[in-house]
Amino acid sequence: MSYRLALAPDIQNRTVAGRERITLRATMDGVQRLNFSANALAIETATLDGVALAHIVEGDVLGFDLPRPLRRGQTVKLELSYHGRPTRGFAGSATTLYTNYFACDWMVCSQNKFGEKAAFSVDLRVPTGMTSLSVGSMIARRPRPDGTEIHSWKAPRPYSAYLYGFAIGQFTRVKERAGSKTLIYLSDAADTGELKRRFAGTSEAVAFLSAKAGVPLPVADYSQLLVGGDEAQEAATYSVLGTDALPTTVDDSSEDWAIVHELTHQWWGNLITCETLRDFWLNEGITTFMTAAWKEHRYGRVAYEAELNVARSRLEKAWAKGFDKPLAWDGTYPTLGIRRAIQYSKGALFMAQLRTTLGDVAFWSGLRRYTRDHAGGTVTSIDLERAMEASSGQDLHSLFAEWVFGDGLLDRHRE
């Protein structure tokens, strides 16, 4: 599966016009409709292998009825043109535009089908002299006679659609090396000195996470875009970070989380992705735990325990409202805060419990095994259990049943 886009974003109006080619292969016989996430874009044209298609929006689904059912293994090309003002996923200033999480509001894709990793490339049409950022690397830059340029970007590997993104603006740009990798810092509101100061700890964090994962930083170039506000959002090969999410003073362990949290997603979340939202804790719980582990490395054991206490406090607030669920639960959470209390905070506390149960040698060996075995793919909770059992030689069925697969009864945690 692949997405090939040509986009013309408009910074002032927060609109986009685009053409898109989606190459798909049927995984079963008899497919009669292609479904994607609904959005506010106006579809101008739609064809399947050159044959015009009608589309329909039903609730949160954008569907295309096919002229004839597809055969298993059949490859087709869905080509679209569209325009509109996305209701989510666009942010920025008067002179910049960047995306944040909701990729399927500015293109046609499936936002929550995490298991459907696909190749991604995009041609961004921007005013001449403007800087752009997207997934992977810029492979070409071509001037046009109308005073614009085409910036062509290509992802290094398939990613889940929620990780697609781009940014355009008059950005200051700084490059630094972290071993064999390149770190890039961009902003329209900070000069070179401030960018270097704000992101000074990135190289050390890359080295720490690479060692714990047993896998080098999975991208050749990792970019961090500094914007106003409290943004903290990962994309496939870069992150968007708000000035309010970064520490205001040097070596403040209580505020130092956003850079390492979003960087950690380059391994757990981006390289290795939960197969469905049921196991979303594998993306966020592991990442939240690794933020605590980074603090232990950077500031000492007290900072590690303090970070876990923050997670406990958030989980206890959910318990106080009478809500607790196992980590691998696919029901509906009453609020975003409660969902995060389970998938982020409880997930981090479970990883800490695994570390205590197994000891450091077996635990970190298990995490490296899990990461190496599933790099580039998708996972469910049982994959983590198997890796931890293989590294430790222990039967972890009861522990995983209690935290991950079991009933998650509130009273059990109050004893």
Counting helices, strands and paired strands, the structural category is alpha+beta
**Strand content bin:** 25-35%
Q: What would the principal axes of the Cα set say about the shape?
A: globular
Q: Gap between N and C termini, in Å?
A: 49 Å
Q: Return the average pLDDT rounded to an integer.
A: 95
- Uncertain regions spanning at least 5 consecutive residues: 408-415
Number of strands: 22
Number of helices: 10
Oligomeric status of the shown chains?
Answer: single chain
Q: Report the radius of gyration as a whole number of Å.
A: 22 Å
The spatial strand order of the largest sheet comes to: 5-4-8-2-1-11-14-13
> Roughly how much helix do the residues carry, as a percent range?
25-40%
- Biggest β-sheet description: 8 strands, mixed
Please sum up the structure shown.
Helix content is 31%, strand content 31%. With 415 residues, it is an alpha+beta fold. A hairpin with a 2-residue loop joins strand 6 (55-58) and strand 7 (61-70).
Key words describing this protein structure:
10 helices; disordered C terminus; 8-stranded mixed sheet; 22 strands; 415 residues; alpha+beta; 5-stranded mixed sheet
